[in-house]
Design brief:
alpha/beta; two-stranded antiparallel sheet; 8 strands; globular
């Protein structure tokens, strides 16, 4: 997160992400992620709590990933095209505390879990607390969980720590 925040500080007007001919600058992306991170903390999330991200590839997905990491929690990326039973299994198996999604996907899957609608149209989430949130993550804290196909019939979660994520990042940059 610190690396991202440094880029946002030094190149605020540069394009951070482009999607369908629209763009978000580093400043815009950082501010939206900060606002959502504060909302996650206000929900009581803390280090190593699990947050599901059930949203198609979009600006909202990138914002959600950054916000969860900024909040100190960890995330599970969930493909909305997965069968509903698989998604429910992943949510229950991982003990997901909260889901970031949108109204349409929540109605479609009928998931029984607390969620935040992270649609960009839901501007109330992105209006407050645009400043960087205090970093509370430690190197051995969980950053995310990826579910494999599962050779036993059920998907299995593979956990990655903050330290491992940074090692991966550095291997890609160098």
């Amino acid at each position: 997160i610190q690396y991202f925040e440094d880029i946002a500080l030094n190149s605020p007007n540069s394009a951070a992400t482009i999607f369908h001919h629209s763009r978000l600058t580093y400043k815009q992306l950082n501010e939206k992620a900060n606002s959502l991170a504060y909302a996650l903390r206000e929900k009581g999330l803390k280090n190593n709590d699990i947050v599901g991200i059930l949203i198609p590839r979009s600006f909202e997905m990138i914002i959600a990933i950054l916000a969860v990491l900024k909040s100190g929690a960890s995330y599970i990326p969930i493909d909305p095209d997965y069968p509903s039973d698989r998604i429910k299994y992943m949510l229950e198996n991982s003990k997901t505390a909260l889901l970031l999604s949108n109204e349409e996907l929540m109605k479609k899957g009928n998931y029984d879990i607390d969620f935040i609608d992270i649609s960009l149209e839901n501007s109330s989430i992105y209006d407050d607390h645009k400043e960087n949130i205090e970093n509370i993550s430690k190197p051995d804290d969980l950053s995310y969980i990826i579910y494999t196909s599962g050779s036993t019939g059920n998907p299995k979660g593979v956990m990655l720590t903050q330290k491992n994520l940074m090692n991966f990042y550095h291997s890609m940059v160098l």
